[in-house]
Every structure is written in C-alpha cells, then in structure tokens.
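From the shared-data thread, chain only:
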Amino acid sequence: MKVQLKVSKNAIVEGSGETLLDVYKEVCALSEVFGESECGKCGGTDLKYQIRNAKDDSGEEYEYPEIVCNDRDCRARLALGLSKTNGQLYPKRYEMDGKKYILDDNGKKKVKGSWGWTIFNRETKVEE
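Structure, as tokens:
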C-alpha cells in the first residue's frame, strides 16, 4: 500500500507499508519534518535541509540535522532531534536543560524561539 500527501507548499511525501497504520505512521513522521513551508522567524520560504557534524563533551562526533532559512538577513534554524526509541526525526520546539524540558510559570514546556526557530545572537551568545 502506498500514499502520496502534500504536506506544505514545497513538499509532497510518500508513505508505504503493509497496513494502513504503517502507511499513516510513515506519512506522519515525514510530514512532521518536511511540513515546514516557511521560516518561523521571518516567514521566508527558501528553506534548506542540512546535516552538520558536531562533537559532544566527550569528543564523540554526532550528526546535527536542521532546517535553515536561506534569507541572508535571517538565517534562522529549526533544530531536529532524533528519537532513540524509533529513529524518527522531530522538530525541537521546546527549551531544554540537558535531557529535561524547562517549564514556564504555569508548568508547561517553554517554547524555544519562535516555535523552535532560533537565531544565534552573536553579542549575547544565546539562541533567541
């Protein structure tokens, strides 16, 4: 079984599987990442998908997937996380302290930047 679904202005995803639930799960995973059609900071639609390499505190290398706004005046980024349970990518939309979410005064997860889209402020050395 196979299905194609338009998930944004720029992307059509295709899911396949033995059962309808298998197809649905695949389309959900793809649309969560490729459903971004514009930058959350400036509204620009020229987005680039990239993977950077980085090192953790122990010196071990890892891949860092992200979506980047190509607007020269913006360059905002939406970091993607990798689920250890099922290997799926997902947008990192909330602020974290290590492996724990930072909560607001109401006990809800604190949103990072503009729904996950951030720009690194070179003066303050903080993602905003």
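The chain has two domains: 1-35, 39-127.
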